[in-house]
Amino acid sequence: MTLPVAWKMPLPLPDPACIEGARAQQNSLTKPPGSLGRLEEAAVALCGQQHRAVPSVDRVHIAVFAGDHGVCDEGVSAFPQAVTAQMIANFAGGGAAISVLARELGAALEVVNLGTVGNVPADLPGVIDASIAPATGNIAVQPAMTDVQVAAALTAGDRAAARAAEAGADLLIAGDMGIGNTTTAAAVACALLYEAPEALVGAGTGLAPEAIQHKATVVGRALNRHGENREPLAVLQSLGGFEIAAIAGAYLGAAARGIPVLVDGFIASAGALIAVRQQPTLRSWLHFGHRSAEQGHRRVLDALEAEPLLDLGMRLGEGSGAATAVTLLRSACALHNRMASFADAGVSDGKG
């Protein structure tokens, strides 16, 4: 199995000198120290990640990874699998939520098709064909991916990060599309966090309580089949999805290339959890856009020691929550870069 270099090679660290300088800059501005809260923290982190005194998130690269899931055979979704392919066309046509948000942000948007049950028309604008198989295996009865397939999905994510770097991106957002993917994300999170399915399985596409219980039962079957191996690659291959693997690959690839990451919701955070368990250094490259309404997301965020920027009750996926939070990061950069210092403004700093 040939994995992307970033899966095992040491990742770079943010620049401590830039972080120290950014903190000094924040403390010199015309405000009480710390009074801009997490906007200050975000700006300081970006300075260290971008190795510069003037942080920026003007150039945002959004990669939405799409793939279908064999576990849908178990009746875990309120929507048919045909929706995955249909939504890829909707992304390309500009009608999806992430398409609208990308236009508003002036962000680059690409969609990476990792394999769908439904037919995806050829040559859709902005859609990259990286098809692996029509769907993953049904995790309730078999591993999600073969060795070759999980490596291909991780590599597809790494290549998206390479395209972001080539475009000079200041920030990477990875989104997801795949009917059934809250089931696989919950299975991955349960395995890594030693949680019962009932603690993490949620409504997904809008399931009723009895359907949520059925979904938790399916996840329980998958966990029993998988066994006790908690090594990140083993969990990903056995229980994950093409898009979860690609998201993990994209995050690691972005950090390896010095690009900060803004993490989206439950699916994206499951990818982040896998990647951080493999490469703990990755955590210092991650910002978190929002807290999803999906039941398991809070627990995954806690495991990642993450406090997201927004909590709006969103649970769409696609990268939409992270894209919504970009405006806050841009505000953090503007404040850091443009506020007057006490000395420049002739304002007393209260120290003498």
**Helix-and-strand structural type:** alpha/beta
Shape: globular
Beta-strand percentage range: 5-15%
Terminal Cα separation, in Å? Answer: 64 Å
Q: Give the strand order of the largest sheet, numbering strands 1, 2, ... along the chain.
A: 3-2-1-4
Tell me the CATH architecture.
3-Layer(aba) Sandwich
Order of helices and strands: HHEHHEEHEHHHHHEHEHHH
Q: Low-confidence parts lasting 5 or more residues at pLDDT below 50? A: none
The overall pLDDT, averaged over residues, is 97
InterPro entries: Nict_dMeBzImd_PRibTrfase, Nict_dMeBzImd_PRibTrfase_bact, Nict_dMeBzImd_PRibTrfase_N, Nict_dMeBzImd_PRibTrfase_sf
Protein name: Nicotinate-nucleotide--dimethylbenzimidazole phosphoribosyltransferase
Catalytic activity: 5,6-dimethylbenzimidazole + nicotinate beta-D-ribonucleotide = alpha-ribazole 5'-phosphate + nicotinate + H(+)
Active site: 318 (proton acceptor)
